[in-house]
Specification:
A: 114 residues, mainly beta, 11 strands, B: 110 residues, 5-stranded mixed sheet, 4-stranded antiparallel sheet, 9 strands
């Protein structure tokens, strides 16, 4: 049981390049999330997927797109990277239950845009 | 949405109890209080959550005031590995969308 996995762990892009961050979970969770964390800051929600087939914007969605490929996988795409997108990106998942909303986080992807 | 207020930082001596306060004065009746921590460069880790009763698990205790406007996370015997940023979060959505604030940087010293 690997939990939440993210690839790649590190990435350097030039301004204008595109890339997709991959996230997968093996816990049969319904909901998945993408957050970004800038240096010295808390996490900010980019997009989330309440269940397979649905996606919604979070606090900071501009410049990103997402795909909930299936129940296990939730990818984040940067179509035209900008230096302001330099950040650490975390994927998370949780199972929807009435009294439990514990989120499990991946190890993060450290992205630098030059 | 209920928001939380935490002190930006606090120090704690190794072996002593660490008491981390959180204010959530606008919390509504069906919102849970969650605590997470983030050790440097890692993904956040769930610690504990509660609605109105005090809760305890192997990591920590959570004390929620009777009016639910504030809570305290207690790490009973802090170790150097407890050095981390601790986030107090009130569930902001019916299915669990979380809003992370800046948290409290806890430094445990020998």
């Amino acid at each position: 049981n690997a939990g939440v996995t993210q690839t790649p762990k590190f990435q350097v892009l030039k301004t204008g390049q595109s890339m997709t961050l991959q996230c997968a979970q093996d816990m049969n969770h319904n909901s998945m999330y993408w957050y970004r964390q800038d240096p010295g800051m808390g996490l900010r929600l980019i997009y989330y997927s309440a269940s397979e087939g649905t996606t919604d914007k979070g606090e900071v969605p501009n410049g990103y797109n997402v795909s909930r490929l299936n129940k296990r996988e939730f990818s984040l795409r940067l179509e035209s990277a900008a230096p302001s997108q330099t950040s650490v990106y975390f994927c998370a998942s949780h199972v929807r239950a009435l009294s439990s909303y514990e989120q499990y986080f991946g190890p993060g992807t450290r992205l630098t845009v030059t | 949405d209920a928001k939380t207020t935490q002190p930006p930082s606090m120090d704690c001596a190794e072996g002593r109890a660490a008491n981390l306060p959180c204010n959530h004065s606008t919390i509504s009746g069906n919102e849970y209080v969650y605590w997470y921590r983030q050790i440097h460069s890692q993904g956040p880790q769930y610690i504990i959550h509660g609605l109105k009763n005090n809760e305890t698990n192997e990591m920590a205790s959570l004390i929620i005031t009777e009016d639910r406007k504030s809570s305290t996370l207690i790490l009973p015997h802090a170790t150097l590995r407890d050095t981390a940023v601790y986030y107090c979060i009130v569930r902001t959505d019916s299915w669990g969308k979380f809003q992370f604030g800046a948290g409290t940087q806890v430094v445990v010293t020998p």
